[in-house]
Amino acid sequence: MTILSGILSLFILVFVAIGFFVIWRGLKGVKKSYVSKRYLKWLIRVYVSVLVLSIIWYSLLSVSNRIEDVPSTSGNFYDIAVNQSVDEIDPAFIGKQWSIDYEKNKLNIGTVDHEYLETPIIVYRSDKNNRKISATYYKKLVVSENDYSKEVKSIDLTLNQDRLLLYQPAQPDFKIVLFKKEFTIRQFTEEKLFEKREEDVSAQSLLYISIPKDLTLIAEDGLNIHYLDN
Amino acid sequence: MSITKPSLTNIVKKQYSYKLRAYRQVYNSLIALQLLAIFFSFNGVGSMSGNWGGIHLNINYYSADIIIIFTMLWGLNSAALITTKAYRFDDFAFVTNRLSGNMANLYVMLTLSVIGGLTSILSGVLLKLLIYYSTDVQIFNDTRLMSEPNLFVTSILSASMYVFLFCVLGYMIGMLFQVNKMILVALAALFIWGLFKDVSGGSNVMVNVFTFFVSESSLFLFFIKMMFCSILLFSISLVISNRMEVRQ
Questions:
Q1: What residue ranges are annotated as transmembrane (chain B) (predicted)?
Q2: Predicted TM-score (pTM) of this structure
Q3: How many domains does chain A have?
């Protein structure tokens, strides 16, 4: 509250200082300044035309804006998978799925050159010895109720003899422009006046791997793995 | 003795239409200020970047708030200009009294506020368009104000009310200045006192005055607050103008 109050005070001080300067300058020995009627008419016409054209143009742009129904899942994938069930995550967020037959009892899991994989991994040990490894990659990028998850590249997963190799493709550096509503409307909506709306953006990913009951999984460096016991 | 009986409404109407034309240079400054505000808004109001599970994001926040604030200052200045001798003596070109002059000024301020409020919101759309074409972004997300006409109209109305409040404030300050030049210094001192005078909750008087309007989430109550304060400020201006000397 005190920080906010300080920022507000500074803002008001600057605002008032500019206000007083403007008034003082305006009132001190003001003389009527006659602007050419023709010039002013021309200026107003151009300005109004630009503003009106902007609205039309912008409305047309908004039509082509990518808006998709945002899947229902809210909250952190990792927490949902650990505390509830991975099935609670909306299938719309599934980026890729793998099902691999594996007969051996030991499996190494790692990345190329042991590079750090930023995607968290959850390993679930199944209660069956079905000799099958299944994996699901979840990805989410939702910005202001618009779903851009498809823009996120999925990781690659390949089995190389007894090593499960994970590969994170180069992700684009997403540059996002978010427009806050004007404060003249923000005060009547749920949007906060001064704080950034971090909840406008939700970005996360998760790799969920299910392994057979008796498989020994050896994790190499560079992985953020959490084991779930049956 | 004249056979025509002037009515207050007709005089106010004549003065209003004359003043709107006479003050036309205020549109010049409005356009200049709004373009300047668009320029200042180009840097955005905040940014955030980070890595979310391998997804790299660079987020830039933009807002048209600066345009509205500049328009409010324009309203303050334009209304203060009306009170200067150079413009005040325009009234004497008509059959007039203090009341008709002030009423015409009030309607002029109302008109300027609507023009200011409308153009400030529309300038926000221009800002969005300029940012859309000038920045290299993958995701451009706005609040789609245009697809919500009720919000769009509310925004214009609310911006106009803010501009109007600043107009009547500027009008009152201008009137006070005409009575005593030192009044501006006293008002500045009052504002600074308000900034440092703590009240409960860790804030100060000015912050409380500011939040009195800005934190009002009910449109109806906001309208009532705006009208009450505007009427109060304008009434003070009326009282001051009635005490001013007549033209020699």
A1: 26-46, 66-83, 104-131, 151-172, 179-196, 219-240
A2: 0.77
A3: 3
